[in-house]
Amino acid sequence: MKVILLGTAAGGGYPQWNCACSMCARAGDQAPPRSQDCVAVSSDGSGWFLLNASPDIRAQILATPALAAGPGPRQTPIKGAILTDAELDHTLGLLMLREAAGGLRVFAPDAALAALRLGFPIRDIVDSYGGWDWQSTGSGFEASGLRVRVLPVGDKRPKYARELAADGPWVVAYRVEDPATGGAFVYAPCLATWPDGFDDFVAGADYALIDGTFYSPDEMTGATASGVSSNAQRRMGHLPIAGDDGSLALVRHHPGVRWAYTHLNNTNPVLCTASTEYDEVLAAGVDIPRDGTTLEF
Ligand code: MLT
Ligand code: MN
Ligand code: ZN
């Protein structure tokens, strides 16, 4: 299985266009810019599925030779998208992909499928371009030779879907397995907690890319929003990295798995490779991969 990390920042990217916080001001060589969270996976390198569809998808595709159009004049190796949730930073890219000849196949949890019809009605919009196929993830499915398992991880709704009548889970994690190699990749960019069943879900995986949105539970206080209270980052649906009950303490129970953080928010000090927080994460054996990182297992 091949995995390409197309984007590794949270919604808004890094730096964020409307943010003048100290981290955004620092973006540069020591704190490389990052596009919004999105991953491409393939069993054989010829057909690819996206994990989430970022608003930056056009630039991400153009920066990735494996995703280049062809061989026919209107062909693309991208077969579809697998969504962890219906947040805008994970779904806006579907609008950019509307021209895909014959449409794409999209897998998402039921609540996300409902939200993309009723709250942010892009299903009807892209369907009018023809051939799109929307599938519920259920507890698992197959996508171009890859086996995908699904774990419900949360019920945080997008802001635009607060009033929508739909049962959760609203957020899921995926374990993508290649039956040919035995390789396994876990993708969990939105973890409000360390969810029930997650330990078993990651067991034996080659690589687990998890929610690294926030370093600390209150880092937006002072950085960008003086009114944001302590622990606000947990309420936003993102388990912080640091602290006794943060994700860095929890991943230590699984030394066999290679762990990595993605969906980094623009306030997160680990964005800067010269920070003590960056050093701390790497010293714990956890990766903070950059956009464009390619993995194979
Ligand atoms: C999140 O990850 O919490 C969401 O993407 C936030 C948002 O875009 O509103
Ligand atoms: Mn997000
Ligand atoms: Zn900022």
Describe the structure.
Strands 6-5-4-3-2-1-13 form a seven-stranded mixed beta sheet. A six-stranded mixed beta sheet has the order 7-8-9-10-11-12. The protein contains eleven helices and 13 strands. Helix content is 20%, strand content 22%. With 297 residues, it is α/β, with parallel strands linked by helices. It is globular. It binds D-malate, manganese (II) ion and zinc ion (ZN). Manganese (II) ion (MN) binds next to loops.
Strand order of the largest sheet: 6-5-4-3-2-1-13
Main beta-sheet annotation: 7 strands, mixed
What's the pLDDT, averaged over the residues? Answer: 95
Number of helices: 11
Bound chemical compounds: D-malate, manganese (II) ion, zinc ion
Strand content: 15-25%
Query: Per the principal axes of the C-alpha atoms, what is the gross shape?
Result: globular
SSE order, one letter for each helix or strand: EHEEHEHHEHHEEEEEHEHHHEHE
Report the span from N to C terminus: 5 Å
Estimate the helix proportion, in percent.
10-25%
- Helix/strand-derived class? alpha/beta
Low-pLDDT segments, ≥5 res = none
Question: Over the alpha carbons, how many angstroms does the gyration radius reach?
Answer: 18 Å
Count of extended strands: 13
